[in-house]
Design brief:
Chain lengths: 115, 107
């Protein structure tokens, strides 16, 4: 069965960077795009970007350009999102979600940015 | 970027009610629209894709319609398990964008 297992919660100080992982299993990793979506506490869903695990190509939301990097490791079927220059407004759950139209979601990783 | 305007942002309804949620795109997106349901503390669940195609396993009381810039999610007879927040997502053009969400609460 398809599973997306994300890394654990993180607490970071403003200005720091965070890297969240998402390990996929139960399907052919390189055949499905992977989205990253975030959700601040009590707020709506926000699309951050997408990566093609096959070729590594990415597309990011303009809001995150210059601060976000999405990568993948095909040897471990894992995708990563790294967000730099963190500020308090980046406090949110970060989700990986499989496919162009997300069908399977990771469990979410809470990133807290606080001094 | 394509803006997705969802309405209403919240609503109260009773079990058995017919519920309609609208999503409007700032430019045409053909039928590249999906609907998601999210319950508190849970990840979103895909209900509809390609504007009107029902995800396998989703009850038939859910339906989607529309094309271009105007889209609708309809719940024909609201059930207790349907109280949740609903989001639309356009995937026609990068960056993909979600609507702001519609919280359906019990009247």
């Amino acid at each position: 069965q398809v599973q997306l297992v994300q890394s654990g919660a993180e607490v970071k100080k403003p200005g720091a960077s965070v890297k969240v992982s998402c390990k996929a299993s139960g399907y052919t990793f390189t055949r499905y795009f992977m989205n990253w979506v975030r959700q601040a506490p009590g707020q709506g869903l926000e699309w951050m970007g997408i990566i093609n695990p096959g070729g590594g190509g990415t597309s990011y939301a303009q809001k995150f350009q210059g601060r976000v990097t999405m990568t993948r490791d095909t040897s471990t079927s894992t995708v990563y999102v790294e967000l730099s220059s963190l500020r308090s407004e980046d406090t949110a759950f970060y989700y990986c979600a499989r496919d162009l139209i997300p069908d399977y979601w990771g469990q979410g990783t809470l990133v807290t940015v606080s001094s | 970027d394509i803006q997705m305007t969802q309405s209403p942002s919240a609503m109260s309804a009773s079990v058995g009610d017919r519920v309609t949620i609208t999503c409007r795109a700032s430019q045409g997106i053909s039928d590249s629209l999906a609907w998601f349901q999210q319950k508190p503390g849970k990840v979103p669940k895909r209900l509809i894709y390609a504007a009107s195609s029902l995800q396998s396993g989703v009850p038939s009381r859910f339906s989607g319609s529309g094309s271009g810039t105007e889209f609708t999610l309809t719940i024909s007879s609201l059930q207790p398990e349907d109280f949740a927040t609903y989001y639309c997502l356009q995937y026609n053009t990068y960056p993909h964008t979600f609507g702001g969400g519609t919280k359906v609460e019990i009247k």
